[in-house]
């Protein structure tokens, strides 16, 4: 694997995380429990899709085959996606959606802060831009997790259930492989395992306030960020997201 | 527009751009918003450097089109729009004129403290947050507990 091949994989991981989560969150548009939450979710999705354009745009540049961000988003099949499994999990109820968002936002904010020091100026610039937006995402998802966790018996039970269900998908965000080693060596991105301590501290603080109990197992479902095995949910998501380009190849407007 | 003597000065161009309204908040211009970062001639091509507010803001492409149209209407044939994401846009770049117009329009201008200073309608300082997200990515949703009116707050970023 050359450095550019590793760099390309790293950029796909960043861009596919934001793309797939952005799409998932956009599924709430018009369905959220109250108008303010509907708007907040749509805004979050919009930020994530905007960040995707930057990450996948740069991925296309590094790959050097003349592919645009749109080409990468709409013309790859499930096995070529490099997002973590967490972000492709279905929305479930509003509580699960916000728990998934919080578990991702916490990682995302820590990762973007580290990436601001990337030796690649383009990566540092995207991280600086995206980091500002993600600060708002984290504030909101964290507050909502606290509000619902430390809420009624019903909301507390649902948030604990969401946490129990999603926790096994957290570990994958901190799994390193040859791509990460190459990126760390080049000073482009940190080794993901180095983010775990900050993550545990942040997530622990918020979940304690939310009166929720973190499962004590560190078992982790894996296979998304290296593309070895996505869940069946990704394929279903792609049939929706890529429908237009599949039905009308090359359509533009 | 190919000879140097017909090139308008960049000062004049900044002035023209100050007449291009933000598509979502038309009381302020794209210059007030602080998203036009540079205007420079490169030969007979006018290069305008623009930075997006939020990375997914759908107004970004409309703004680019409006800038291009405004400059073409002034007779500038060759316009190259460049996007720059670093340094990232900050509400510190909003002009004083822009801040005042926002407030007159009913949108509380950004404050370093992270919340509006006062209700843009009645001026009361008794305000509370409804949601961090509002009608566009750059705004949050607040409410005045005196006049009871909801209002938009231009988020500090
Ligand atoms: Zn008021």
From TrEMBL, chain A:
GO terms under cellular component: cytosol
Pfam families: PaaA_PaaC
GO biological process, one term: phenylacetate catabolic process
Signal peptide: none
InterPro entries per the UniProt record, alphabetical: Aromatic_CoA_ox/epox, Ferritin-like, Ferritin-like_SF, PaaA_PaaC, PaaC
Domain of life, source organism: Bacteria
PANTHER family the record matches: 1,2-PHENYLACETYL-COA EPOXIDASE, SUBUNIT C, PHENYLACETIC ACID DEGRADATION PROTEIN PAA
UniProt-recorded name of the protein: Ring-1,2-phenylacetyl-CoA epoxidase subunit PaaC
Source organism: Cribrihabitans marinus
Automatic annotation (TrEMBL), chain B:
Transmembrane segments: none
Domain MIP18 family-like: 11-73
SUPFAM superfamilies membership: Fe-S cluster assembly (FSCA) domain-like
InterPro entries, per the entry: Fe-S_Maturation_MIP18, FSCA_dom_sf, MIP18-like, PaaD-like, Zn_ribbon_PaaD
Annotated ranges, domain PaaD zinc beta ribbon: 118-155
Gene3D superfamilies in UniProt: Fe-S cluster assembly (FSCA)
Domain of life: Bacteria
Residue runs in coiled coils: none
Designated name of the protein: Ring-1,2-phenylacetyl-CoA epoxidase subunit PaaD
Lineage, broadest ranks: Bacteria, Pseudomonadati, Pseudomonadota, Alphaproteobacteria, Rhodobacterales
